Each structure stands twice: as C-alpha cells, then as structure tokens.
Amino acid sequence: MFETMVGFVMGDHLGGLTFEPPLDRGGYARHMSPDRRPYRTRDGFISVIVYNDKQWTSFFDATGREDLRCDPMFSTFKGRLAHIDTVYAELGRIFETRTTAEWMKLLVDADIPVMQVHDLQSLLRDPHLVETGFFPVAEHPTEGPIRSMRVAATWSDSSADPSRLAPRLGEQSREILSEAGFTADEIAKLVTDGVAHVAPSISQQQG
Q1: How high is the pLDDT of residue 171?
Q2: Which ranges constitute the DSSP H helices of 24-135?
C-alpha cells in the first residue's frame, strides 16, 4: 500500500529529483498550489480540474468569461503554469457564484471533469451509486432493514457480493461444527455442556 501511494504521488512530483544530482527539489507546481483543493460553491464544495486548452475553451464558453479568454495568464498552458496560484485563486472566486447543482450541470455539459464533494450522508444519495445499487438494503429477519456495500470490482464469471446476511450470534454454530467433522450427537453435547452456543430459531426469538 505504501509503495502504491508513493507511485501515485511521485509520478507527478519526482520532477528534478529524477536526475543525479537533482535539478530541483521536485514537486509539480500545479499540484503544489495552495489553491488547488476542492472549491467552495454557494452551498457546498466541488472538485474540478480545468486542465488542457480544450477544457479551458469550454470553460470560457460555459461561463461567458471572455475577459479570461483574452488574458495571457489564462489563455495558454504556459501562461497558466507560470501564474498557477493566480489561476486557481480566480477559479475559487468563480465557483462561489453558483450552487453545486448548477456547477455540476454546467461542467458536465461542457465535458469538464467535476465531482461533488460529499459528506457521509450525501454519499449514500450520489446518483451514480444509486444507479449502480452500490448500497443495497436488505431485510434482516431480526434487525430490520440493513444497508451494506457492494464490492467495487467485478468479474465475468463470478460475483463477489455476499450470498447471505450477517449471522446472529450462534446462528451457524451447528453448520461450522459439522464442517469441522463433529457428528450431530457431538454437537448436541457441546451445546448441552455450554461449550457451543446455538442461536434460537427466528420463530422462537420473535415469540
């Protein structure tokens, strides 16, 4: 896990540290800018990356910011890189002028990468996760409706989704002991002696 994260981070930031001796202290200026972070909207936050010239042209068109289109600090990649703190700070001011929903529609329509910044509750209502059924709710026989999560990875010939709900304490004692080689009589004695616990049936518990 550590090596994976180092690979993700240093893929962008190795820079001059690639060479021996190093040409600089490393770090990609665009990523190191203090204003490169989720942007506040009128009612929340969004993560946006307006990166290449095509995306910036779409952004100028969508927002009507002709003044920025004509500004050399914004109109070219070279200009944006040289003034990246100014660019990101201006984006921060722009994104505060509309709601999250307004920006999501405008930027998605403009084919600019954007994502709402969720809290723990709003994540459950994310349109993509709702559409894919990522948080299925099942009726547990004793606990009522239970929310779980799907496994994000998929395979062509098998499913990683759980085949049954979490068991009650002792619900699978007989099954596990049987798989371990104990006979029915031996299991009954373990239960009688208090060595193993067996959960009552659902009808007994509800009665």
Answers
A1: 87
A2: 29-32, 53-63, 66-69, 72-75, 77-82, 84-95, 100-109, 127-132
Tokens 């779409």, residue located: 58
Nearest by Cα to 27 from 39, 36, 16, 38: 16
For the chain, strand residue ranges (E) read: 39-40, 45-48, 114-116, 137-140, 144-147
Report the C-alpha gap between 104 and 115 in whole angstroms.
Answer: 7
Show the tokens assigned to 180: 């371990």
Question: Do 114 and 47 touch, CB atoms closer than 8 A?
Answer: yes
Per-residue b or e along 140-177, where b marks 16 or more CB atoms closer than 10 Å to that residue's CB: eeeeeeeeeebeeeeeeeeeeeeeeeeeeeebebbeeb
- Of 188, 153, 151, 148, nearest to 165 (Cα)? 148
Please state, as a whole number, how many other Cβ atoms lie within 10 Å of the Cβ of residue 66.
Answer: 10
Q: What pTM was computed for the model?
A: 0.69
Which element (helix H / strand E) includes 27?
none
User: Distance between alpha carbon 148 and the CA centroid of its chain, in Å?
Assistant: 16
The set of residues, in sequence order, having a beta carbon less than 8 Å from that of 177 and lying 6+ positions away, is 186, 187, 190, 196
Question: What is residue 165's predicted lDDT score, i.e. its pLDDT?
Answer: 81
Distances in whole angstroms, Cα of residue 182 to Cα of each of 100, 103, 175, 185, 186? 60, 63, 10, 8, 6
